[in-house]
Structures are given as C-alpha cells and as structure tokens.
UniProtKB/TrEMBL annotation:
GO cellular component: plasma membrane
Keywords: Cell inner membrane, Cell membrane, Membrane, Transmembrane, Transmembrane helix, Transport
Descriptive protein name: MFS transporter
Ranges of residues in domain Major facilitator superfamily associated: 13-363
PANTHER family hit by this protein: 3-PHENYLPROPIONIC ACID TRANSPORTER-RELATED, BLL5896 PROTEIN
Keyword Nuclease: no
Taxon lineage: Bacteria, Pseudomonadati, Pseudomonadota, Alphaproteobacteria, Sneathiellales
Cross-referenced InterPro entries: HcaT-like, MFS_assoc_dom, MFS_trans_sf
Database matches in NCBIfam families: mfs
Length: 388
C-alpha cells in the first residue's frame, strides 16, 4: 500500500513557493533594476534614492502593518492583499517617466513589499509551533530562487532592450500573488498582552538590546554590499572570480539552512547570535587585510554562518521569548530596526568609510560584530525571563 504524504509535508509544499516568488523578485531586481532606471535617464544619485525607498518604507510601515496583522490574528490575508496591491502598483512603471514619478511608485510599492519577509517568516514559524515544519529548510528555497533569478535573469535578458526588465519583474510580482493564495491561514487569539503590544515591545529593554545585537551583526555586511565588488576589482580580481565569491556565500547559506536542524540543535537563540557575531568579527578582520584569492574563498564561506546563525537566532528568540499574539509586531520591529534602520544607516555610512579607509573599512565592521558580542553576553546572563 503506497505511503501518503503527511499533512505537515503538504503544508510545507504550500509554504516554499512563497519564498521562491519573493526572492525571485529580489534576484531580478538587485542586478537588473538599476539598468532599467539608468535606461530611463536617472542619474547615479537618483538611482540610489529610488533603490533606498523600500528600506526607509520598512522602518516606518512594517511595524504598522505587522501590528495590524497581530490585531487581526491572521497572516495569510494581509499577504494576499498586499501582493495584489504590489502587482497593481508595479504596472504604473509602464506609464511613468522621470525621476519623481518613478520614485513615487517605488515608495508606494516599498510600503507593502518591505513587510513580506516579516509576515511570511512569522506565518511559517507560528505553524512550526504546532506542526513538524522545519523553517530553515523552507527558507532555503528563497536563497536558491535568488541565485536562479540572478543567473537566468541575465540569460533571459541577453541581447534584449532594458524595456523587458519591468516585464520580467511584473511576471514575478504576479507569481508572488498566486503563491500567497496557496499559503495556509492561521488564527492567533488576541490576549491581554496583545493590547498596545508595539508600545510594550518598545518599552522592553532586553528586546531592544536583542534588536541592537542582531542589527549590528547584519548591518556589518554593509561595506561588503556597498563596496565589496569595487574593492575586489581594485585588487585585480577578475569579474568571473568576483561572481564566484558572491555565489559561494549564498551556496554555503543554502547548505546551512538545509542542515540547520542538526547543526544548531543544541544552540539557544542567543548562542546562535553569538556564533554569527564571532564569525562576522573574524571574517571582517581578515577582509581588512585585503587577502589573496585562496583566503577570500575560505573567508567567504563564513557568510553562511554570519547571516544564517544570526537570522535563525533572531527568529527563534522572537518565537521562544515573546507571546505569540505580539510575534508579528516583534518580527516587524526586527525587520524595521535591525534590517532597516541599522542596515540602512550602515549602507549610508559605508560609502564614506570606504572612501576614507578603503579596504580597512572592514575593520569597522569587525568592531560592529565585537560590540554585538558584548551585548549578546548581557542577554545570555539574564536569569529572569523576558517580561512585557
């Protein structure tokens, strides 16, 4: 008699496409969207402003949207509505012209798209409390999709006009809407701690310290993101090798997500954040000495540890330390402050750091991770449970 797939496996099959579609958009947008913006006549400064719009939207609107999701006690419904709004707003790119119109559309879409990761992660993690669902193994499909989008997007666009770039992204936004329809819905009961949950979280010192620690580690990637390729080019490294170095980090990320259940089984959330900070401190300290290619290949493998360990530690901290009825708001604040405000600030200052210190700017990133380690040790030594 054939074995039927379990309900948990079937639910997982409904979750993975969400990450595939979401990171396909990112995989298309990061390498190719600036090309279209330049084709539309925007200057380098204007392109930077347009690309930063979702980051600043995340800081303000993600906590608001997450609070609404907690208030409703639902996750799927807001994602479906927002994905449809994003797809509709994206069609305006086929009509607009000039910097101001393009910026307004980018800002409008950023209000909604910036909240997808927070609500999607919270949906999967909440389901994981009652089902045998492995969040890292579902999340890894996002990393795979990013690589596929970056590589095959280039193959698809080879020899074509930049006018095809928004068409490709429009199709990806439509796919995101369809994948959101596949998501299972959850209902989170509103309790007393749900009232004024955002305010309670912002008045909780240990939670704010956690946001700072995670943000300092994730924000330490800013010099690499802003100037990593440029610095490697000044070292005389070929474009093909630079592409390999970027891909290597994401491949290690995928492997660690796939094996996280076994590798990090004995780690507490804070231990994971400490592991991420330690690997980041080592990685950036070595990068500051402009190592040769063999050392770069080895040190880039730490990207998986720096990002994955910190991210999984943050996700588990939110789900294990906080009441479920405020978890979406906590997820929203993590996205807004750690990945928005701190990362956005890091990206802003990284250009000045690289201009003033060149490759030695990585030493500042090592210092950021060292500060995060000291903060994490404070959290680890707290004997009392977190109270809202």
């Amino acid at each position: 008699m054939p074995l039927l797939p379990s309900d948990d496996f079937l639910v997982s099959l409904r979750l993975a496409p969400f990450y595939i579609a979401l990171f396909l958009i990112i995989g298309f947008q990061l390498p190719f969207w600036p090309v279209w913006l330049s084709y539309k006549g925007l200057t380098a400064e204007e392109i930077g402003i347009v690309l930063s719009a979702p980051v600043w939207s995340k800081i303000l609107f993600t906590p608001i949207i997450a609070s609404l999701s907690d208030h409703l006690g639902r996750r799927r419904a807001p994602l479906v509505i927002m994905s449809l709004i994003c797809f509709a707003l994206f069609q305006l790119y086929f009509l607009v012209d000039g910097f101001m119109q393009i910026f307004c559309v980018a800002l409008s879409i950023g209000i909604f798209i910036s909240s997808f990761t927070a609500l999607g992660d919270n949906l999967v993690l909440t389901l994981g409390l009652t089902r045998n669902i492995d969040y890292p193994r579902i999340r890894l499909w996002g990393s795979i999709s990013f690589i596929v989008g970056s590589f095959f997007g280039g193959q698809l666009l080879a020899g074509l006009s930049p006018d095809y770039i928004p068409a490709m992204l429009s199709a990806a936004y439509l796919l995101l809407f369809l994948c959101c329809l596949l998501l299972p819905e959850i209902e989170v009961t509103r309790g007393d701690k749900s009232k004024k949950g955002l305010r309670r979280l912002l008045k909780c010192p240990p939670f704010l310290v956690f946001l700072l620690a995670a943000g300092l580690i994730q924000g330490s990637h800013s010099v690499l993101y802003a100037a990593g390729t440029l610095h490697w080019q000044t070292q005389g490294i070929s474009d093909a090798t630079i592409g390999f170095l970027w891909a290597e980090g994401v491949i290690v990320e995928i492997i660690l997500f796939a094996c996280a259940r076994y590798l990090f089984k004995s780690f507490s959330p804070i231990h994971l954040i400490i592991l991420g900070g330690t690997s980041g401190m080592i990685r950036w300290a070595v990068m500051g000495f402009a190592p040769d290619i063999p050392v770069l290949i080895l040190i880039q493998m730490l990207h998986g540890v720096t990002f994955v360990a910190t991210h999984l530690g943050a996700m588990r901290y939110i789900m294990e330390e906080l009441p479920l009825e405020v978890s979406a708001r906590a997820q929203g604040l993590y996205s807004a402050i750690s990945l928005g405000l701190i990362m956005g600030g890091g990206l802003f200052f990284s250009g000045y750091l690289y201009e003033g210190f060149a490759g030695h700017a990585y030493f500042f990133m090592a210092g950021s991770c060292a500060a995060a380690l000291l903060i994490s040790l404070y959290l680890q030594r707290r004997p009392e449970p977190l109270q809202l």
